[in-house]
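Anyone? Bumping this.
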Amino acid sequence: MNAVVLLARPAEAAFTDEEDALITRQLALAYWRDEHAGTNPDLVRLTEKVRLRMIEAEAPEPVTPESLPPENPKP
Amino acid sequence: MSGHFPTTPLTLLTRLREPGEGHYWQVSWKRFLELYHEPLTVTARACYRHHTAGRDPAGELVEDVVATVVADFFTKGQYRYDATKGRLRNYLRVLTNARTVDVLRKENPSAQSLPRLPEPVSLPTEAEEEINAFHGALLATLVEDLRNQIPLRQFEVFERVKLKHQTPEAVAEDLGIRRAAIDRSVHKTMTKLREIARRSEYQEEFYP
């Protein structure tokens, strides 16, 4: 059983003590992982990699002689 | 971009899933990475093992795959997610699998076991570890949505009692309110949390 399924029960259905404990445990685990994400050195490094790839993806294509239109023929 | 913002408050997950021009920018890529880097990492590892008969990938290779998936997801039009065609979770798995295969091809261009593009590559069966990682990311998203939809003080009470496990008595004393008010606040917040969790975008993401 997992917390999302339990939380989605109809509002009038109360939780047992075990269910309440399971929800609290899973929510707290997700919360703490998220809270510590900002100081995780692996994530800091990964963020830099994403940033660089996004800059590369959004940079204009380099101008090469092949990409230039041919000169107009002289009259 | 402002013209693309929804007129009604939407949850974080809805904003990611909301089809339409420019919707990806309604959620910061950094926040998305914080919330979803773990399931993407677990999935990239599983895909690598699937295509290499069980070899473990180098950490740097997994990082490269995850970084490319997130950058593509937020910058490239062809990788836009269409919520009408399936779950975000499945879409991210397909994208991660494809980028893992790209890396494998670069690593070993003569890898004959991998199908040639554009033939689709096989997706490994979703492992328990992946399901748990996505589940954790979904719960963190749920907490984020809750934080954005209730008053700050109400979230603080919930956070201290349910997420940081401080005693209701200590929180009541610290905030200068009655113990009964703490219980009422936590109950009200749990009701709101359940309301958000019942929304279709959460249920559709979770159920297989």
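Late reply, but here is one note on the structure posted above: Residues 94 and 123 of chain B are 7 Å apart (CA to CA).
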